[in-house]
Protein 1
Amino acid sequence: DSGVTQTPKHLITATGQRVTLRCSPRSGDLSVYWYQQSLDQGLQFLIQYYNGEERAKGNILERFSAQQFPDLHSELNLSSLELGDSALYFCASSEGEGQASSYNEQFFGPGTRLTVL
Amino acid sequence: GNSVTQMEGPVTLSEEAFLTINCTYTATGYPSLFWYVQYPGEGLQLLLKATKADDKGSNKGFEATYRKETTSFHLEKGSVQVSDSAVYFCALSDRSGGYQKVTFGTGTKLQVIP
């Protein structure tokens, strides 16, 4: 158990809909990262937050948005869903924001499997 | 940009066989290198890491050496077990734009049969 929790575990929805995925980081971790894992694209970094502020952006679509709340949990909002958005969405957390020369290990949650029909 | 290339799977081995999963990378500067493992139904977890050239990372019988001259970080294990069946991801981390950014390979599925 990594200490990172994600809800829901599974989500099935229709094209055009909007969903919200939730992540609670490990106790004490200030950084949250979101990743998308699909069969054809592999593991893609979406976005990172540190202590409530956006820190880095990866391959995140404009239809997707995220935020980190004062209690440090994070939500990933996916809207106008398309069939191609079906994937596993992982949240990870780390202690710092990754600026230091030493690597901040990322701890991954179990993921949310999104199926768009 | 940075990239990580790892051998395609699935890799199927018999128990106690020797394992090698190849990983090569492209990066500017001096990245740190990692292997993550994803067991069925779980998220990724860090297996081992190396932060500079010639460093060897090791954990649970797995090891990998950071080879700057060949830009490689191949994962090896002398004797695999059924419990090693999982997907293995090679990754690199650098400080792009002042913040750490991790780039993952596509993953290699390992299946160990008794």
Protein 2
Amino acid sequence: QKEVEQDPGPLSVPEGAIVSLNCTYSNSAFQYFMWYRQYSRKGPELLMYTYSSGNKEDGRFTAQVDKSSKYISLFIRDSQPSDSATYLCATLLGGGATNKLIFGTGTLLAVQP
Amino acid sequence: GAVVSQHPSRVICKSGTSVKIECRSLDFQATTMFWYRQFPKKSLMLMATSNEGSKATYEQGVEKDKFLINHASLTLSTLTVTSAHPEDSSFYICSARDQGGGNYGYTFGSGTRLTVV
């Protein structure tokens, strides 16, 4: 079983739609969760991060972690064509200086104008 | 914010030659840098962790002699793909950890598209 599982999509939505992106993880010890956005032929950029369970909101983006079900979600409200990208969930493995990011497969999102 | 510069962005080389990719942290010092490989429609696979002034730590299955990593300063790590073959063609991405960002302080370069012909 992979440590982080993510539906690769692709996901196509009309402009203005609410987008829901999801991941599951296997290790209940994971505490730090991130969402990265990656445009084509570019490196990932940090979009949202959360610690343990709960919600975090930043503008049109909401990150949610449910540790009881080992489920990570990213919601995008009022989606825009500029949101079209690959979204990768990630968590940290290890501790301190040996932390390593573990990524999901990434979900390719296309927002149609 | 923290910026990581990666060069070249794209390189085509002949089979059997070596290619060097540079990763620089521009406005912070990074004792630890990471090298990833990404296949089309696949996730980032960690290849190795680069530690300034010491040997890199390679992930299981990654050939140390094929992918040489040097982290000679706090702002520069290099990945050299030696005796490249077509199967080494991929998208390589580096990341540097900005201590000021805590557990979320990982900044990525723009990636290098390597094509071996």
